[in-house]
Inverse folding.
């Protein structure tokens, strides 16, 4: 089984506001960058979208290490989701889970792979995380201005 590293990040100008997401996929010496944007969203939705789209881009079952600077993303998919599902997608406070649609999509994608999750400090020394931040921020700015670089 191929071993892939997936590094993710999301950005939002305002919260809510125009947002962007990005991910870097690494397999040996191969590197693929993917990014996108949404007109009205939140930072947490963009963090989730980055992971979903990165996993979705893998064409076959892989052993994937997902590296994120979002504790919300890492804790949600590794810990909180089990309780949410047990309670019918309600939080411990008996309120509906925010971003349920994306949590369900992320769970569907993680089940396609053998997935582990790692946290890295954002805006620090992780080169690929910094690159994701740059791409996600650019996507959000382009979404806001209505332009596209390239």
């Amino acid at each position: 089984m191929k071993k892939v590293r997936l590094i993710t990040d999301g950005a939002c100008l305002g919260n809510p506001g125009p947002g962007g997401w990005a991910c870097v996929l690494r397999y040996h010496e191969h590197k693929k960058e993917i990014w996108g944007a949404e007109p009205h969203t939140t930072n947490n939705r963009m963090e989730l979208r980055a992971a979903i789209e990165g996993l979705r881009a893998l064409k076959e079952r892989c052993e994937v290490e997902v590296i994120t600077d979002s504790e919300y993303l890492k804790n949600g998919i590794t810990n909180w989701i089990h309780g949410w599902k047990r309670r019918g997608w309600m939080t411990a406070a008996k309120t509906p889970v925010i971003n349920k649609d994306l949590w369900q999509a992320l769970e569907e994608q993680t089940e396609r792979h053998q997935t582990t999750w790692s946290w890295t400090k954002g805006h620090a020394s992780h080169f690929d995380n910094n690159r994701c931040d740059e791409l996600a921020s650019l996507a959000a700015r382009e979404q806001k201005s209505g332009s596209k670089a390239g």
About this structure: The helical segments are 43-56, 71-86, 100-111, 127-145. The radius of gyration is 15 Å. The CA atoms of residues 50 and 56 lie 10 Å apart. The chain has a mean pLDDT of 95.
